[in-house]
Specification:
Helix content is about 30%, strand content about 30%. The protein has a nine-stranded antiparallel β-sheet, covered by helices on one side. The chain has a nine-stranded antiparallel β-sheet with strand order 3-5-4-15-16-10-11-13-12. Strand 12 and strand 13 form a beta hairpin. The radius of gyration is 20 Å and the shape is globular. The two termini are about 15 Å apart. The ligand C=C(O[C@H]1C=CC=C(C(=O)O)[C@@H]1O)C(=O)O binds next to strand 7, strand 11 and strand 18.
Length: about 375
């Protein structure tokens, strides 16, 4: 993907320090940036994913809804495809507002994480998770963590976005900013719901191995296969309640940056698109980011993980019941402030999991964003 002109570059970077809300995103296997811009007022705050029924706009929901982390919908006052149209839209917008961009809108500054403390904390939480798996309270739990580091002085969110587009053709790349959510950049491999009219698609994505150079490893351990099978079974049962003519493909090995995952595609038909929010609410959080049994795992994570996931493992993407919808799970993402980047990553834990392997997996997942800084 090419860089847009300097003026637009600056404008987009400045918008991440403004009270305005926008999302810039690029779908997998396309080279087309798409801008969704809300020109006035606050974004719509939603009570739950179900409140998305009938709505159109760019969605960002947290893993767990709180006053600090609300689900939001960016109203698409302007939608522009390709840099040329994006430039025109942004120039028109910039000339219509009188606003001094400052860092104060994106300055909930965070402390950098101490690497050793982070590892020790992860080990403690891991042992809590593994005990609850060994005593069969849970079949699967997803344990995650975050890590904050200082940004270089000349960091540009748009440059990071473009690098992600160029490095990760298979992923959905997003740069999203609202005053409520802050600024997030992500590169996610996981669709939660996409489609239009009657044709719909979701995936079960789980199990992780590093790429071997340019070779995709395809020999999956039993742990990885079981981990992914739990997700598939959950999605199969959920989709059956909403859709017809379910068709499944997989599991097969799918690349995501320098990692590979096991993936099953689910294609199905929906009679109408009036209840997309209900479907998302039922699907989310899938055992790919939460655990089984779902409700109990969700509460266990909230009470034991030891930090707030914020928008990591929430939903991000474009929703349009009258047109095409492309909603993703917000993975391989980072939250940007003026001076810091906070990375997020997790992994599915089964009773057979070991702490070193799981820690290493979160490092590799965080590298997806680290590599574009
Ligand atoms: C929870 C994450 O990944 C999910 C998606 C693919 C593979 C996963 C795994 O192997 O654990 C996770 O379920 C993450 O990237 O933080």
């Amino acid at each position: 993907m090419n860089l847009p002109g300097t003026t637009i570059h600056k404008l987009i970077d400045n918008l991440t320090r403004s009270p305005f809300s926008f999302a810039l995103y690029r779908l997998p296997w396309t080279d087309e940036p798409i801008l969704v811009l809300q020109e006035e007022e606050d974004v719509e705050v939603l009570n739950s994913p179900a409140a998305l029924n009938g709505k159109r706009g760019f969605v960002m929901t947290p893993f767990h809804q709180t006053e600090e982390y609300p689900a939001v919908l960016i109203r698409p006052d302007k939608v522009a495809h390709e840099w040329e149209n994006i430039s025109q839209s942004l120039e028109a917008f910039a000339s219509s507002i009188s606003f001094e961009f400052s860092s104060s809108f994106n300055s909930k500054e965070k402390r950098s994480t101490n690497a050793q403390e982070a590892k020790e904390k992860y080990e403690q939480v891991f042992s809590r998770f593994i005990s609850s798996l060994e005593d069969n309270t849970f079949k699967k739990l997803v344990l995650s963590r975050n890590y904050t580091q200082a940004l270089e002085g000349d960091f540009s969110p748009l440059t990071a976005f473009i690098r992600a587009c160029n490095n990760y053709p298979r992923m959905m790349i997003s740069l999203c900013h609202t005053p409520q959510t802050g600024t997030w950049i992500g590169s996610t491999p996981e669709i939660i719901l996409s489609g239009q009219d009657t044709e719909w698609h979701t995936v079960a994505l789980a199990g992780t191995m590093p790429m071997q150079g340019e070779i995709m490893p395809t020999e999956w351990s039993e742990k990885n296969q079981n981990e992914q099978a739990f997700v598939s079974e959950y999605i199969r049962q959920t989709v059956k309640r909403f859709g017809n003519k379910l068709k499944e493909k997989g599991p097969y090995t799918a690349r995501a940056g320098q990692l590979v995952h096991l993936k099953t595609d689910f294609h199905f038909e929906l009679k109408d698109t009036a209840h997309l929010g209900d479907i998302v609410q039922e699907l989310h959080p899938t055992p790919a980011v939460c655990g089984l049994p779902k409700e109990e795992a969700y509460h266990f994570i909230l009470n034991n993980e030891g930090y707030n996931r914020a928008y990591y493992t929430g939903i991000i993407g474009w929703l349009d019941p009258q047109g095409e919808t492309t909603l993703y799970v917000n993975l391989r993402c980072m939250n940007i402030t003026d001076k810091t980047a906070t990375f997020y990553a997790g992994g599915g834990i089964l009773p057979s999991s070991t702490v070193e392997t799981e820690w290493e997996e979160t490092q590799q997942k965080m590298n997806t964003m680290r590599n574009i800084l």
